[in-house]
Specification:
Layout lengths: L3 H42 L4 E4 L2 E4 L6 E4 L2 E5 L17 E2 L2 E2 L2 E4 L5 H18 L2 E2 L3 H6 L21 E3 L11 H7 L7 E4 L6 H4 L3 H7 L4 H22 L6 E7 L4 H9 L6 H14 L4 E7 L2 H8 L5 E3 L5 H8 L4 E3 L4 H10 L3 E5 L10 H6 L5 E5 L2
């Protein structure tokens, strides 16, 4: 029994020495991890690339900028994943006269999705100088835009010749780093097809003005839109006995299949009356009620039921999706709900875009976190609850 205190004392001393040894070993490991992480962050978000285009040299700088809202903490804006200093070129490797690598994209989904796929492909060409070609099927889906500058894919698309590159990780990760690695030549001198609905807002938003020129509607469609919007302004002036034309706010309401889609995949509800009231009130206050709202939806019966009692709300004739896109994107400002179609109506309009800040159980591409990380400073969140 007399030996027990001495044994306990030696045991305590041994334990203390073990903990001290582990702490000493842990310090350099933690230091190394911090240094590597800091280098990766700086290497990704602070870069000064030079893209060679024949005799042209495109100079641009993408840095870690921040967005600041009154009630929102700063969020770093993402940039391209691969610094141009790490790009690989293959000057002696060509396909059909085009330098490798070559990229194209399948037109997956509806109009808004296809526009996002084209925009992502266009941005990869602009940033990494990769050869980007448009499939005939995508050209046909985007026939409303005669100013698209990417050339067509020559010959016949043979799936066996092309490597698919898309996102990595789970369904809601939206990690498309591999398409940038391919565009930068880091996956070899191959033919690549973009898959899994690429919609890289943080890439193509670097060239917003140029991309809006890409998506310029045909003159015939523009003329019809101008006539319709002029009639809206005249009706508003007549009702309000005013000689001043109102500001025009496009209002897109996504419904139909999206009701179940967002609930099943994101645990979210589509915004309805409370959000509609906040969004309308936002612009009425901003323009002292000198505002007219132009509404389009894939469920016009629902839209009319909820909004027809407002004297400053006018409705689209409910034509093809491209007609509604042309109409809404020609307004001064925008109200959107969820989905790629609504995103493009606001993005192309170019003014302020009010969107719903919905509660989500998973990451969603057209949400507050994603808009802020893409540095969409003209996108304003409003509570959807």
């Amino acid at each position: 029994m007399d030996g027990l205190p001495n044994k306990a004392s030696r045991l305590v001393t041994w334990c203390r020495n073990q903990r001290a040894g582990r702490k000493a070993a842990l310090v350099p490991a933690v230091t190394l991890i911090c240094v590597v992480s800091l280098y990766a962050i700086l290497d990704t978000f602070s870069w000064q690339p030079t893209v060679k285009r024949g005799r042209e040299r495109l100079e641009m700088r993408v840095s870690s900028t921040t967005l600041q809202h009154e009630d929102v903490p700063s969020v770093p804006a993402r940039g391209p994943a691969v610094p141009l200093s790490k790009c690989v070129q293959y000057p002696d490797r060509q396909w059909q006269g085009y330098p490798l690598p070559v990229m194209t994209s399948k037109p997956l989904g509806r109009l808004g999705n296809v526009m996002g796929e084209y925009a992502s492909l266009w941005a990869l060409r602009r940033i990494y100088n990769v050869t980007a070609l448009v499939m005939p099927s995508m050209r046909a889906r985007l026939r409303f835009f005669p100013s698209l500058s990417l050339p067509d894919l020559p010959g016949t698309y043979l799936r066996s010749e092309w490597h698919g590159v898309g996102k990595t990780g789970g369904m809601f990760r939206y990690n498309y780093t591999r398409i940038e690695l391919a565009a930068a030549g880091l996956l070899g001198p191959h033919l690549f097809t973009l898959t899994y609905y690429p919609f890289e807002i943080h890439l193509f938003n670097l060239f917003k003005k140029e991309l809006r020129r890409e998506f310029t509607f045909a003159k015939g469609m523009q003329k019809k839109v101008t006539e319709f919007l002029s009639s809206v302004q005249q009706k508003w002036q007549s009702v309000n006995n005013s000689t001043t034309p109102p500001a025009l706010v496009g209002f897109h309401i996504r419904r139909t299949d999206y009701l179940k889609y967002v609930m099943r995949n994101f645990g979210a509800k589509l915004p309805e009356d409370k959000y509609f009231t906040r969004a309308l009130g936002h612009y009425r206050r901003r323009f002292s009620n000198n505002v007219a709202f132009v509404v389009a939806s894939d469920d016009m019966a629902f839209a009319r039921q909820r909004l027809a009692h407002h004297r400053d709300v006018f409705f689209s004739k409910g034509g093809a999706a491209a007609d509604d896109m042309a109409l809404l994107s020609s307004c001064n400002h925008s109200i959107i709900t969820l989905g790629s179609f609504g995103f493009w109506t606001g993005y192309l309009a170019g003014g302020e875009v009010v969107y719903p800040d919905v509660k989500l159980q998973r990451r969603y591409r057209f949400s507050r976190a994603m808009f802020e990380s893409a540095n969409l400073t003209n996108f304003i969140p409003l509570s959807a609850e």
